[in-house]
Structures are given as structure tokens and as C-alpha cells.
Design goal:
The protein is an alpha/beta fold. Helix content is about 40%, strand content about 20%. It has two domains: about 5-220, 3-Layer(aba) Sandwich (Rossmann fold), CATH 3.40.50.300; about 260-410, Nucleotidyltransferase, domain 5 (2-Layer Sandwich). The protein has 16 helices and 15 strands. The two termini are about 45 Å apart.
């Protein structure tokens, strides 16, 4: 590349998105150049509120690399919701710093070969800094980490508001409290830069200053066809929040006009079953057999207001009746008890730990495929009614949860019931 010092500095200060493109982020555009300049060179606290899939987190990684190069003695904190979320971006920033083109920029500007002096999952320090305190140039932290006694010149928050804030008032208040504490650790003259997408009308974005909003119309990053597909695949309230940056009331009715009366032959020899187990109280045990054929999901569903132990043998009989295959069941509530008992009775079982919010799972997977769902004869009417009655505040969600879980298993898989899969 043979850059002069002046050329290297001009690229990083005037057109940093070109640097981002050079190190592998080809989808960055002039719009992202404006964001990057604000992130790197702005002086006031600021908030970038942009829709999902707008590459705002990618811009964070590029900005961190440029800050490390141009302001090597600045200390930056990067905060996301969880530690795992943080590690993803820290890893991406390290890849940028290790890129040969980045090394050329550093060589041109500072006359030395760039080296990572500290290279951990949550911290980055290079040989560009000579800070005697040994503090990292970039520190990543989830919202559960301790910030007591720490001080930073720059603080970036990214997606500290997420689906948990949509569904939990307690989480919204926790997020606000942690965000307010950040003011105590920013050095004099420092700034806080926030990026993310709103989820609730009373979430932490209410506290974040100087918001600049970029909905899907303003960015132009999503095609009309993609927008149509997104609108079809999720609730209007979720689409409004995530792509229009607006809040509208949640819908009372999600699943309407179920298609029933399908031929039971369509689920013969299905490879997929799912149990949503009840362990007492007023919960239901839901059992779902599903076969995906020609883009359609043929469903046989049963629902019992019983402890799973009391309907386990009946579940096995229905599985055998349709010559269905492996049974999926989660382990969160019983630590694997049900899976172990089913195996003892000769059943093939895949167990998994559920880590996805139930409401989002149901509206993401089941809502997206609802037009392709066909309930076969023999499905319990109460099973179907529990799905059509479902909303965010429903008392019972066992049937929609079971059906959404098995659709998730089949998500993106080929239309063959015989292909073995790994649960993801």
C-alpha cells in the first residue's frame, strides 16, 4: 500500500469507512462513515439509534481499532448486555488490529510494527501505549461486571437494551440503574456513546442523550422484498420497534384462521416430536408431532392438564402410532429427568437447555411459519385453541411453545423428515 503518514491519518480521520472496507467489512457505506466519525471524534454524549441489521455494531469494532491507533493513551470501556456479547466484538476488533492493512497504517503513522501486548477475551492493549498504570486500551464488560473504582476516557454501550427489557420491567429498571452509574466512571472531558435499538417505550433509551434515529427508510439498507418478508415474519409491534424505531401497542391476536383437517398420513414416519412438560400446578403438558413436506408443517398436537408423568405412556403410544422419531425436550425445569425416563422406556431423545425468551421464540418462529402450518385430524381442539388464544400476557403457552420449538428445529432444514439434525 505504501502509505505516507499524512495519507494514513487522512483516511482514518476523513473516510474511516474506507479503512473498514479494506479490513473486510465491504458493506460499510457513506452512511457508516458519518457514524464512525461521530464515534471516533465526537465530544458530546450521543446516541445512535438504528434498526436491526444496520451494521452499527460493526462500526463499533472499526471505531475501536481507529481509536486505539490514533489515541493510544485513551482508555475505552465497551459495555453490552452480557459477557458473551462483549467477547464477540472484542474478538472482531482484534481481527482488525491483526489485519496486514492495519499494520501498514500503524507503520505509516507511528513507524513501528503493531503488536498486541494484551490479548484476552475482554481486554486489548497494544505496544502503541506507554501508560505506566498498565490499564487496557479497550476493556469489554457485560452489565453484570463491576465498574467500581474504574475510570475511562470513552464509554461505548451497545445493545444494553434487548428483548429482556421488552418483557421485564425489573430488567428495564436494572439497565437504567447501571447506565446511570456509568457517569461516575467517565473521566472529565470524556464521553458516552450509545448504540442500539429500542424495545420498549420505557426502556433505557429514555435516559440516553442526543438521539439520532435511523429507521429502515432512512438508511436504505434493506430491500423492499426483505421488508415485506420481515413484516410477515413478526408482530407489527416488534417490526415497528426494531425497524421503524417506534412503539405501538402489542397485539391481542397473533395466530388467526388455523388450517385444520389435514391428512394424518402426512405425519407418518415423521422424525420430529416435542414435549413441553408440566410438573404440577395449572400448567399443561403439550405433545407435538411435526413433519415438514413441500414447505408445509403438518402438525399433530395433544394437550393434557396433567403432570408429564401421568401422560408419558400415552405420549409414547401416540409416537408409536404414527411411527414418529426422536423426541425433543428441554432440561431447564427438570435437569434431564424426563429425558432419562423416556430413554429408560426405549425412546430416542434429544435434550437441550432453552436459552431463548419464550415470547420471542413463539412470535419469531411460529408467527413466521403460521401460514404454512396445517393441523392434521385428531389434533386436540384445546391444543389449537391455546395457540389461537395466545398473546404476550396469556395464562397458558404450552402448546404454542411446543409447536414453536419443533418449528425451530426444522428452521431452514430441507423438506425431508428423514434427515438427521443437531439441535441448535
Amino acid at each position: 500500500m505504501n502509505l505516507t503518514r499524512q495519507e494514513a491519518v487522512q483516511i482514518l480521520t476523513l473516510i474511516p469507512y474506507k479503512f473498514g472496507q479494506a479490513v473486510g467489512f465491504n458493506k460499510l457505506e457513506q452512511l457508516h462513515n458519518e457514524w464512525l466519525i461521530d464515534m471516533i471524534f465526537g465530544t458530546e454524549d450521543e446516541t445512535l439509534q438504528a434498526h436491526r441489521g444496520s451494521y452499527k455494531t460493526t462500526c463499533d469494532s472499526v471505531a475501536f481499532a481507529v481509536i486505539i491507533i490514533l489515541y493510544p493513551n485513551d482508555k475505552t470501556l465497551f459495555m453490552r448486555k452480557t459477557d458473551d456479547d462483549v467477547k464477540e466484538v472484542i474478538t472482531q476488533t482484534k481481527r482488525i488490529l491483526k489485519h496486514p492493512i492495519t499494520r501498514e497504517f500503524v507503520k505509516a503513522i507511528w513507524g513501528i510494527d503493531l503488536r498486541l501486548a494484551k490479548d484476552s477475551a475482554t481486554e486489548i492493549t497494544t505496544n502503541l501505549t506507554n501508560d505506566p498504570r498498565g490499564a487496557a486500551q479497550l476493556t469489554g464488560m457485560g452489565m453484570g461486571g463491576s465498574i467500581t473504582g474504574k475510570h475511562f476516557d470513552r464509554i461505548f454501550t451497545d445493545d444494553i437494551v434487548n428483548v429482556k427489557d421488552r418483557t421485564s420491567k425489573a430488567e428495564r429498571e436494572r439497565t437504567k440503574l447501571i447506565y446511570q452509574e456509568l457517569r461516575n466512571i467517565i473521566n472529565r472531558g470524556g464521553r458516552i456513546f450509545n448504540t442500539g435499538t429500542p424495545w420498549h417505550k420505557d426502556d433505557c433509551f429514555k435516559l440516553m442523550p442526543n438521539p439520532k434515529k435511523y429507521d429502515y427508510k432512512r438508511t436504505g439498507l434493506i430491500s423492499d422484498q426483505e421488508i415485506a418478508e420481515l413484516k410477515e415474519s413478526m408482530l407489527p409491534s416488534l417490526f415497528a420497534a426494531n425497524y421503524m424505531l417506534k412503539h405501538i401497542a402489542a397485539e391481542d391476536v397473533i395466530f388467526t384462521n388455523p388450517v385444520t383437517g389435514g391428512d394424518t398420513a402426512k405425519i407418518e414416519q415423521s422424525n420430529y416430536c416435542h414435549i413441553d412438560a408440566a410438573y404440577g400446578g395449572s400448567d399443561y403438558t403439550a405433545f407435538t408431532i411435526c413433519r415438514k413436506t413441500d414447505g408445509k408443517y403438518y402438525i399433530f398436537g395433544k394437550l393434557w392438564r396433567k403432570h408429564v408423568d401421568d401422560c408419558e405412556d400415552e405420549i409414547i403410544n401416540w409416537r408409536k402410532r404414527f411411527n414418529a422419531g426422536r423426541i425433543y425436550c428441554e432440561t431447564n425445569a427438570d435437569k434431564g429427568y424426563l429425558a432419562k425416563d423416556l430413554r429408560r422406556k426405549g425412546e430416542r431423545v434429544t435434550e437441550y437447555a432453552e436459552n431463548e425468551n419464550k415470547f420471542i421464540k413463539i412470535v419469531s418462529y411460529l408467527k413466521a411459519e403460521w401460514k404454512n402450518v396445517i393441523f392434521v385430524e385428531g389434533t386436540d381442539e384445546e391444543y389449537i385453541e391455546q395457540i389461537t388464544d395466545y398473546n404476550e400476557n396469556a395464562d397458558h403457552d404450552d402448546a404454542p411453545d411446543s409447536l414453536a420449538s419443533i418449528i425451530r428445529v426444522l428452521w431452514g432444514k430441507r423438506d425431508t423428515p428423514y434427515k438427521s439434525i443437531i439441535y441448535q
